[in-house]
Amino acid sequence: MTRATREPRPAPAPRARAWGSDDIPWSARVRVSVVWLVTGVLSILALVTPLPFSGQVQLQVGDVAPADVFAPRQVIYVSELVTKQRRDLAANSVPEVYDPPQARIGRQQLTLTNHILEFIGSVRADSFSDLPGKVALIKAVTAVDLPREVVSRTLTLPNPAWERVANEVQSVLDRAMREEIRENNLADERRKIPARVRLDLSDEDVAVVTAFIEDLLVPNSFFNAERTEQRRQQARDRVEPATLTIERSETILRAGDIVTASELEALEAVGLRQPTWSWLEVAATAAFVLLLGAILLYYLWCAEPGFWLQRTEPILLAVIMLGFVLFTRLAVPGHPLLRYLFPYAALSMLISLLINQRVALLAAGLFALLVGWLTQGNLELMAYALVGCIVGTLKLRRGERIATYAFAASYIILVNLCVVLAFKLIGEQRGLLGIAEVGILALVNGLVTIMVTLLGVYLVGTLAGVVTPLQLIELSRPTHPLLRQLLLKAPGTYHHTLLVSNMAERAAEAIGADSLLTRVGTYYHDVGKTIRPYFFIENRTEGPDPHARLDPHTSAQVIISHVKDGIELARKYRLPQRIIDFVPEHHGTLMVSYFYHQATRQAGVPDSVDRAAFRYSGPKPQSRETAITMLADGAEATVRAKRPGTVEEIEQIVAESVDSRVMSGQLDECPLTMDDLREIRRAFVDVLRGLHHPRIAYPPEATLTPPAAEQSTADEPPDGLSRPGRPAARLPKEERRAPPANRDSGASRAV
Fold it and tell me: How far apart are CA 396 and CA 409, in angstroms?
C-alpha cells in the first residue's frame, strides 16, 4: 500500500481523490505481471501439450497401428468422407451440359466456303499461270489445308465437273453444320462426310469434296461449365449427410493395419485421435492466450486498481483460470457429450464469490472465447458457456445463503436448456433421442456447477485462507463458541461489539466496502477482553476498580494485552486471517492515553515516561474494512463516554473522533479517501442518533384515590377498585410498604 500524501501537519491525511492506476506501486505491477506471465505460459502448454493417459493415439493416414483400438462408447456421427464420396458420385453422374447449335457459325462457314471456291475458280481461269504456280496460289489459302494431290485434281477438273464438286461442297457443308457438332465429336462428324456426298460423283471427286469439308467443318455447340457445375451441385445437395454408427467395444483399428482416412475419421469421432501441433499452431495459440490475458490485465489496470495491491487475489484468480483452462482442455475437445456436462459457470461464480462480480463477468466472456477456440468456433458451445456463466453469476450475487445457490442452479438449468433447444432445433441432427440426451446433460450441468462451486469455495477458504461469504455467515451466528464466550464472560463488551458492528456495516455499505466482512470482523475485534473482562469498564457493574491497585504501566499492559489475547483466541478457534486482522488493526498504533497521562503525572517529568510502553503494537489498518472498524470503535466509545443530548453534539463528537485518527496517521496505509470519510461520519451519526436521541422527563404517576362520596354515589366503581363480590385491586408491594406521601416523594426523586 502506498502511503497517503502528507500535508504540512503533524500527521498525514487520507488522499482526497479515488485510488487510481497511477498510484499502483511498481512492486505490485511487477508482481502481478509475473503471475500472469507464468499463468499464460502454463495455459499455452496446457493447450498444446499432448495429454498423457487419455487413451488417444497420434496417427496419420498411412501409419501402422501400434495396437488394437476399441471404441469406448457408442457414437453416431456424420462421416464427412462417406458424405463427400456419395456427393461426388452423384455429381459425376450428371452429364456435361452444352449450348444449342449456333446457326451463326454455320453461316460464317458457308460464306467462307463461297469465298474460297470463288478464289479457286479465278485461279482455274487464269491462263497466264502454269500449274505449279496455280497450286502455290491455292496452297497459300490458310482457311483450308488441302493436300497437293487434291489441289492438282481441283485444277485439272473439267469445268462441269468442278461446278458439280463446288456445289456439292456447299450442300454437304450446309447439311453438316445444321447438326450439333461438339469438340469431342468433331472427328466422328468428319468421318460421316463421305456418306453424305452424292452417289453419282466419282471417287476422285468425292475425295476432293471430303478434303474441303473436313477443313471447313467446325464445332457449333460448346461446353457450358457454369450450367454443368450448377446441375452437379444440385445433385450433391440432394445427397443427405451419411450417418455412421460405431458400437461400443467395436474394433476401429487392429495392430499392424495401415491407417486409412475413414479409420482416422472414426478415431476423431470417438475422441481417440490426438491432434498434432505444428509450430505455426503453437504460435497462434500463444498469441490468442496472451491476447486474452492482456485484455484481462488492461481491465484490471483501468477499473480495478485495488486488485494490484492484493497479494492473494491475483494468485487466486490465476489459479482458477489456469485450472479451468486445463480441465476444459481435458473435457471439451473430442467429447461430444461431456462438453455439455462441464461446469463452465463455476468459473465465473467462484471468481464472483472470491474476488468480485465485475471481474467474474469479464472472465466469463474471455472463457467463452477460449471454449470457441478449443472447439474450432462452435457457436453453440460458446453460447452455452457464456450464458450459463452470466446468469449464474448475476443470480448468485454474494452467495450468502444456501438457498441462493439453489436458485442459481435452477436458472443455469433453464438457460442451458434454452440454448440447447435453440441450436439443436435448427441444426442438422434433429433426432428426438439426441435432443433428449443433450437436454438431460444440460439439466445435470446446473447441479454439477453448484457442487463444484461449493467445493471450490470450501477448498479455497480452507487451503488459501480466503474468507468466503458462507464462512462469514457461519462465523456471524451468535452460537459460535467464541461469540458465546464473549457474551457470557464480557457481556458489556459483547453489546459494545454489536453496536460497533452496526455502525461499521452501515459505513461499509455507504462507501462500497465489504459490509459482510466488516460486520463479522467487528464481532471478533475485542474477543481478547474475555481473558480479563473485569479490567474493562464496560464489563464492571459493581465492585472496586482493579486498576486502582496497579501502577499505570501495568494497567496499560493489561489493556494492550487484549489484542495479543484476541489473536491467540482467534487462531485457537481457526478464524480466517482476514478476521484475525481486525483484532490488531482496529487499534493500530494508538496510545492508551488515560494511563499514559497518569504515568506522566506520577513521574512529574513527561520525558521520563516511555511512550512506546503505552502504545499498541499495530499494524495500522491495511484495508478499508479494518479502518472502518477502528473509526467505529473510537466514535462509539467517545459518544458513550460524553453522552450527548443533541444530534449536533453527536456529529461534533464523531467528527472529532474520526479526525483524531486521521491526524495521528492511523489511516496512512489504507485506501480510504476524504469522500469515504465523509460518508463514514454520516453513517455513524445515523446509527448513533437512534441510540442517543434526547428523552423527555415524564411526571410521577398519581395515586388513584377518589373521594368516598364519589364512590358511594357512582353506579359503577372506577377501574382498578373492587365491585361487590370482587376482591380489591392490590397495589404494588413497594407502594403498600410506604405511606402515600413517601411514595410521591420517591417518585419525584426518581424523575
Answer: 9
Cell numbers 471427286: residue: 205
Q: What's the pLDDT band for 720 if we cut at 50, 70, 90?
A: very low
DSSP 360-420: HHHHHHHHHHHHHHHTTS-HHHHHHHHHHHHHHHHHHTT--SHHHHHHHHHHHHHHHHHHH
Sign of CA dihedral 101, 104, 108, 110: positive
Is-contact 364 393, C-beta < 8 A?
yes
Full-model pTM: 0.63
**What single-letter amino acid sits at 627?**
A
Integer Cα distance of 267 and 289 in angstroms: 28
The answer to whether the beta carbons of residues 14 and 677 sit under 8 Å apart is: yes
Residue of 517, 388, 367 whose CA lies nearest to 453: 388
In 213-315, beta strands by DSSP E: 243-246, 251-253
CA triplet 84, 90, 91: central angle to 5 degrees?
A: 85
pLDDT tens per residue, range 105-134: 989 999 999 999 898 888 888 888 888 888
Q: Give the rounded distance of the alpha carbon of 272 from its chain centre.
A: 29
Could you tell me whether strands 243-246 and 75-78 are parallel, antiparallel, or unpaired per DSSP bridges?
antiparallel
Q: According to the model, what pLDDT value does residue 711 have?
A: 38
CB burial of 530-542 (b: ≥16 within 10 Å; e: otherwise) equals: bbbbebbebbeee
Average pLDDT, the chain: 83
Contact by Cβ (8 Å): 239, 87: yes
Question: What CA–CA distance (Å, rounded) separates 588 from 11?
Answer: 14
DSSP assignment of 139-165, as one string?
Answer: HT-SS----HHHHHHHHHS-HHHHHHH
C-alpha cell at 426: 435448427
How far are the Cα atoms of 41, 110, 708, 730, 751 from residue 743, in angstroms, in the given order?
87, 148, 21, 15, 13
* pLDDT tens, position by position, 621-659: 999 999 999 999 999 999 988 888 888 999 999 999 999
Burial (CB count <10 Å: 0-12, 13-18, 19+), residue 561 = middle
CA–CA dist 527, 521 (Å, integer): 11
Phi, psi of 223 (to 5 degrees): -70, 130
Q: Residues 34, 39, 40, 41: what is their CA dihedral angle, to the nearest 10 degrees?
A: 90
The span from the CA of 32 to the CA of 37, in Å, is: 9
| Chain segment 558-605, per-residue pLDDT in tens | 999 999 999 999 999 989 889 999 999 999 999 988 888 888 888 877
Cβ partners under 8 Å of residue 290, min gap 6: 40
Would the CA dihedral through 647, 650, 652, 655 be positive or negative?
negative
The CA radius of gyration of the chain, in Å to the nearest whole number, is 50
In whole angstroms, what is the distance from residue 361 CA to residue 679 CA? 29
Q: Write down the H helix ranges in 99-130.
A: 103-124
- Report the alpha-carbon distance of residue 179 to residue 189 in Å, rounded: 9
CA 133/CA 322 separation, integer angstroms: 95
Which grid coordinates belong to 19? 485510488
Single out the residue of 272, 225, 219, 281 nearest to residue 250, CA to CA.
272
Task: Read off the amino acid at residue 436.
Answer: A
Dihedral class, residue 271 (left if φ above 0, else alpha if ψ from -120 to 50, else beta)? left
